[in-house]
Specification:
The protein is mainly alpha-helical. The chain has 7 helices and no strands. α1 packs antiparallel against α5 and α2 packs antiparallel against α3. It is rod-shaped and about 95 Å long.
Length: 189
Amino acid sequence: MEFLWLWIIIGVVAMLAVFVWSTYNGLVTLKIRVDEAWSDITVQLKRRVDLIPNLVNTVKGYAAHESGVFEKVTEARSAIQNAKGVKEAAAGENMLEGALKSLFAVAEAYPDLKANQNFAQLQQELVDTEDKIQAARRFYNGGVRDLNTKITLFPNNLFAGMLGFKSREFFELDSAEQAVAEKPVDVQF
């Protein structure tokens, strides 16, 4: 009878060890996926930030009097480059989206600029980069969802904090930024 209790205790301890081991490995896997997804976002944001000066300089040649638009684009570009974390990157990206809408609205007013091959190529590269950023954001947010779900579910929530895992923030717009992003650009000449 004493051996039976000993085997039961050993079995329970072994099952608990296997559970903690598998929970830890699952959380590490999800954390690495989220880190990878964030890295993908930063690569695409860097690509976009590198394209913008070329685009701005091309437009400047045609619309030198639109300095306010160029200042907004430059300010937004700096905000993305200096972002530390998801919230700051999201805020910078939203500011840049609004500034780029204004820049493209200015470009619409200059038919020669729209016909410029360099401008068209830069604009296409920027559109391609925007698509990649959106895909990277969806992948990141999916990874964050999976990680946060695993951290929150019982009984994982009992061990996740002790193992050093914390919930991550989604890459999303806050309500004020959402209203700005959805508002049509008002360009006056």
